[in-house]
Amino acid sequence: MELKVWVEGIQRIVCGVTETTTCQDVVFALAHATGKVGRFTLIERWRNNERLLAPQEYPLKILMKWGEYSNDIQFILRRSDSSDNQKFLPPNSNIKSPNGNGQTTLNPNIQDKQNSPNRPNSTAFNNVNTSPSNPVGVVRGIQQSKTPDDSPASKDVPPYRDPPPPYRSPPPPQGVRKSPSRSRPRSHMSPVNEPDEERNPEAVSYNTQYRELVSLVNYQRDKLSSQQVDLIKYDAEIGYWENKGREQERQVELLQQQINSADSQLRISTEQVQALNYVEEESEIAKQNEKTLKSEIVLVRSKLANCETELLQCKNKIRKVMEDIHTEQRLLNGRQQENRQALERTMLAEMDGLQTQIQQAKHATEINHLTAENLKREVGVLETAIMEKKRQVERLVQEMKEANLQSLTGSVDELRHPLDGMCKAGSARRIIGSPRQLENAAPTNKNPHGVWV
Questions:
Q1: What angle in degrees, to the nearest 10, is found between the helix axes of 108-115 and 201-275?
Q2: Residue 162: left (phi > 0), alpha (psi -120 to 50), or beta?
Q3: How far is the CA of 67 from the CAs of 20, 73, 125, 139, 297, in angstroms?
Q4: Which parts of this chain are annotated as the region Disordered (predicted)?
Q5: Residue 11 DSSP one-character state
Q6: d(CA 59, CA 3)
């Protein structure tokens, strides 16, 4: 069976796990596959709760105990060296647990990240390697220990503690991520870790930056939670004072009703005194009642004044809180308005740039149209000039033809006489015409325009 274990933020798959496989066997296999040395602890995590597993416990039996919640269980391999943990503690490590009991816990992924700056991207066991791009490593060949089922190991699930929520730390940069098999040969026989001087300074700086960012995120988270608590407290106070104000208003109304009833009774008593002047005893009783009622009225009025002062104080507090809320809202609205105005300005600038480009393009197209029309006109003028030249050439050719015909219409005698004396004796070839007349082209059937010699 396969068992998934998270090692330094990377999920490893351990093959060949049975019911007799202990946590110690799993830790040995993972340490041998990753080439790590030191003290390690296998941790069981369910949601936000973690539990340290004993070396003699059986992971499969633990999963079987969880039943339908076994898919939510995560096993995490964590280095438990005390010296490394004390060395790489971040400054803001006091984080309150979710139950609010003030227990200080440290994020396990941050601690794993700090303890191993050069994290390998692949694990190898029994000559089985995975590619660096695959975050899941497979560990094969666990040596099964023949431990009987009635071993003295604890079979009950120990109590949980409340750690911070799970968080997977990001992988190191690509320039630092190197496989241990490429950088240096693995030596499983060495009982000590590599010295700190051999670590890559880029990885160390990356880890320091990461720790600073994590501490900043934790600080901001604590600050937000404290602000949320303050808001809840203020809301509770506001609700309390509003309820108290309503109760005081009801009390005031009751007192006013009592005052009205007392006034009505006083009027009735005075009327009775006026009607029954002859009854002195009743008048004295009525006077005493009047005095008591007046004293009660004075007391009620004093209570009313006290209630009004308390109500004014509550209203002042409410007004202050509302003013603070309004100021915060105004600040937020101002920031949003500034961002919106900046975005509008950028959009307007881009629109102006596009409009100028469109105007330039229109101007360029108009210029191109004008040049095209000018070229068309020039082409038309050139075509008319070419046609005129062609007509002139045709006229000249026709005139040359007529001149040739006129030059050849002379008498044959005129052509022969000048050449009779030039013939040599014994020559059978005779030249017809004078050599000067050869300048003119003589037309033939094949060449009506004449042949130039």
A1: 160
A2: beta
A3: 18, 10, 31, 25, 73
A4: 83-204
A5: E
A6: 8
Three-class secondary structure assignment of 325-379: HHHHHHHHHHHHHHHHHHHHHHHHHHHHHHHHHHHHHHHHHHHHHHHHHHHHHHH
CA distance 32 to 137: 13
Per-block average pLDDT, block size 10, for the chain (453 residues)? Answer: 89 90 91 87 90 91 89 89 44 36 38 38 33 39 42 40 42 41 38 45 76 88 88 87 89 90 88 74 83 92 92 92 92 91 91 91 92 92 94 92 82 53 52 55 63 54
Helix (H) or strand (E) holding 299, with range, is helix 280-408
Q: What is the DSSP string of 257-272?
A: HHHHHHHHHHHHHHHH
Cα–Cα distance for residue pair 39/26, rounded to 1 Å: 13
Amino acid at 291: K
CB-CB contact of 54 with 153 (8 Å) = yes
CA distance 167 to 76: 12
- Calculate the alpha carbon distances from 208 to 28, 52, 201, 218 in Å: 30, 28, 10, 15
Q: Phi and psi of 93, rounded to 5°?
A: -100, -5
Q: Alpha carbon of 215 to those of 119, 205, 222, 312, 401: distances in Å?
A: 21, 15, 10, 45, 110
Residues 6+ apart with CB under 8 A from 329: none
Cα angle: 115, vertex 121, 123; to 5 degrees: 95
